[in-house]
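Rotation project, supervised by the postdoc (A.L.). Task for the rotation student: set up a whole-complex structure prediction and record inputs and outputs verbatim in this book. Inputs entered:
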Amino acid sequence: MAESYNSTDPIELAPGVFHLGVSDAPNSFSNVPYVIVDGNEAVLIDPGSALPKFFNVVLEKLKKALKGDLKKIKHIIVQHQDPDLCAAIPLIETHCAPDVTVHAPLEAKVLIQHYNFKATLHPLDDDDVLTFGDGRKFVFAMTPYCHFVGSMVTYDTKHKIVFSSDAFGGFTGGMDLYAGPDYPLQLTSFLGQYLGSKRALEYALRRLEQVNSAYGINMICPQHGCVIKKELIPAYLEAAHALHVGGEVDALAAKHGIKLGG
Amino acid sequence: MNPKAIIEEILDTAQKLSLEKDRIKGIFQKSGVTLDGNMKVSAIAGDPLAVLKSLMDNLAEMAVVKISAKQIIRKAGLSL
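Outputs recorded:
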């Protein structure tokens, strides 16, 4: 399997699970949508940016992954409301099944509607299940305040993959597919600044550990950065537990002489 | 951690976040930090704290590196 991705080809991470990543190298950033095919249906997760230089890459990869049949896409999942994953919804929906549904956390729904797409927007709550294709099940786990109240991760019960959204994302200037020696720093640089609540992070991590203990996790697929293979998951969970988050508040409070409790 | 050590850690981090070595080198040199052929700090022109402040200003054009540099500075207990 390829160890890096490119600007033209989707990468099949597991049978029917495709990485559609696009690199924004000058900004040390990447967006990674995923499409999952099961039977005659497909689910697109976090479709990405509306900027043509990024959207066109994703669209071409999607066409290759689905062998030109984008009408297979019956569901679009967006795991929070940010534009780097939602802005492409109005552009991509025109290629999808006529009855495509967008699924998003309840608390994100009120914001996501402003991307102005036509598809039905279905709100999700913790432990909701999406069944598609030949009975494939995705389970949604809410990860509130990590980094938005309406944030979630998606668990693919068939291949035991967690699509983790911003959790386990990292800043990357390269196009490495899998987390390598520099990824701990790339991950902590991203999460350390973009997460505000240690409590929220701990909840999300412990929930993932519960899932790992009960059902197993073979792979973590974040929306930015690199895919984390099974053997490295415990080390990354540990690194995430050790993260100091919310430091920007402390720095500004110190600067302005504001004393914060707790 | 002294300002020179902070500058070195920011440089090391920058190279883990970006593959654009020439761009990194240009920003550090513009800020008064000379790098050798191995992308290590070889000289700092003037007061390291003033150079660090200048570096933070110039890193605005590489936002992700600046975001990480802010964390390094906080961790070092420094306030600029």
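Student's summary: The longest strand of chain A covers residues 136-142.
Supervisor addendum: The mean pLDDT of chain A is 95.
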